[in-house]
Specification:
The protein is an alpha+beta fold. The protein contains ten helices and twelve strands.
């Protein structure tokens, strides 16, 4: 896996033998870990919207209503007929009742569900906002990333080979999922609509990960890999630094605009850290929009 970075960060990575684990809010994509608007609709408001939808379904399609809610078809058809025989005022009165606080008295399980979802929501928010994220990629030869993350080709790309035998945290890297649809907190649950997972610790961790490991398809060219560690960065800090094993630094690629003095400095430091590191100098390819890499011996 590869890590693009600038000259100063490269010195830190080699000199301190650590990698930066940052908060989601430190990422360059503002949608990374942005969860505030996922919870901007109160649960009871969403319930009220669902009630209107289901009442309309009962009126127009009692068969679908029966299948969706799990009531006998005959009962749904009879209720639909009674409702449709009433006046508009009677229908509005029924909707007002179903969306009032009185409904909690008739359906205590709904009130318990709402309270459980609020608790789970608070746990997800805390986990995501304090998560630690390390980002890498499968690609060491992407012109856009050389420009964006390696200081316009003045920086470097590190090639790390995760050491599973020594339980390296780099072995936890997983590919980012790219989607045009953002994750949602809510799930279908009687009158609640959405995609919230079952309330188990494993499901909540998986959902928390989806908030930090799903990005827009417009970022797919990055072929990103990530480690996401829930509740990892202490309050008041923007990042922590995790050590890696010296032998995991397998390759170093120097940007084609790197100054000669900087190149010599980084080459010396990298070989002092791992004498077997393979080092390459990037060059502009002839006749094509690409880079070539010449070994530095």
């Amino acid at each position: 896996m590869y890590k693009y970075t600038n000259e100063n960060a490269a010195r830190h990575i080699i000199g301190n033998r650590t990698l930066r684990i940052g908060r989601p809010t430190e990422m360059n994509d503002p949608f990374d870990g942005y969860i505030d608007d996922l919870f901007d609709v109160e649960l009871k408001d969403r319930y009220n919207v669902a009630v209107v939808t289901l009442v309309d379904m009962l009126s127009r399609n009692p068969g679908e209503f029966a299948k969706r809610i799990g009531v006998p078809l005959e009962e749904a058809i009879a209720t639909s007929a009674t409702m449709n025989a009433g006046t508009v005022a009677q229908r509005d009165q029924m909707l007002a009742f179903l969306t009032s606080s009185m409904i909690d008295d008739f359906y205590p399980e709904l009130k318990a569900e709402l309270e459980a979802l609020e608790t789970q929501k608070a746990a997800v928010v805390a986990q995501v906002r304090n998560s630690g994220i390390f980002c890498a990629t499968r690609n060491n030869n992407n012109l856009l990333m050389w420009s964006h993350y390696a200081d316009e080709h003045r920086g470097v790309v590190f090639g790390f080979r995760p050491d599973a035998a020594r339980d390296s945290f780099l072995c936890l890297l997983e590919p980012v999922t790219y989607s045009d649809v953002r994750p949602s907190f809510y799930k279908p649950c009687d009158l609640l609509a959405g995609n919230m997972p079952a309330p188990t610790p494993e499901a909540m961790r998986a959902f928390s990960r989806s908030l930090t490991a799903v990005k827009s398809t417009q970022w797919a060219y990055e072929e990103e890999l990530r480690v996401v560690i829930p509740s990892y960065v202490p309050k008041g800090q923007s990042a922590v630094f995790m050590p890696y094993h010296a032998t995991e630094l397998a390759e170093l690629y120097l940007g084609h605009r790197v100054a000669r003095c900087v190149r010599d400095e980084l080459v010396t430091a990298a070989r002092a850290l791992n004498k077997d590191v393979a080092i390459f100098q990037a060059r502009i390819a002839s006749g094509t929009y690409a880079l070539t890499f010449e070994p530095i011996t």
